[in-house]
Amino acid sequence: MQIAIKTQTLSKKPYEFKSAADLVHNPLESCYEKLVRDYVSNMGFPCVGAKTALAKDQINICVAQSILSNESDEKILTGLYDFISHYKKDKVIFRSFIVVFDDKKPMSEEDFEMALWTRLQSLHDKDIFPWDTAVSAHPSDKTFSLSAGNKAFYIIGMHPGSSRDARRFPLPALVFNLHEQFEQLRATGQYQQMRQLIRRRDKAFSGSTNPMLEDFGNSSEAVQYSGRQVAAEEWKCPFHHKGLH
Fold this sequence. Notes:
alpha+beta; 5-stranded mixed β-sheet; 7 helices; 5 strands; 36% helix; globular
């Protein structure tokens, strides 16, 4: 199967949430779902995988309390377990689970990164399933990936203060993408094609290629999660597996 997208003049501007009216007049869930859909459907948004998931109605959205609070951890995990259950039934790829946090106050990239790892650590501590043995539980390992519900996930952090246009979202958000779907793409020979297409589109959208991106297995993907540009060799991940010391 070939991955195709209509040829268009790419917008170099990130999606901008221009009105807060929906936040007042519509229920929070439907409002934030619309926010995600508008963001992904923006013509210039580079991730064609997300666009495919949107077109197939395979994006699950969970609205949570502040990313700084553990108040919604159980809700997030329940949503993730349900997401995994549906995936196991048909193994259909191009699915994403997106948590949108109800935080209106912008964060710096450093503060968001700290909040992201605090939230992921808290979710891991509450996760009732064992770590996915297909990936490492050590964040410094080249084969590390976050595990939840016994499935490995690649995490994409987004927030208003991101320096990358493709990561700049009106509210803090975490995108959970199953690692298994990347392996399916590799098995069918589609992975390289999709990766190259996304990176070309990201360069057009953001004005430059993302210097933090590495293929799985070349270096730990943990450094990529928050979207902050750092010196990978100097950066230390604050996450630790609850069963490792």
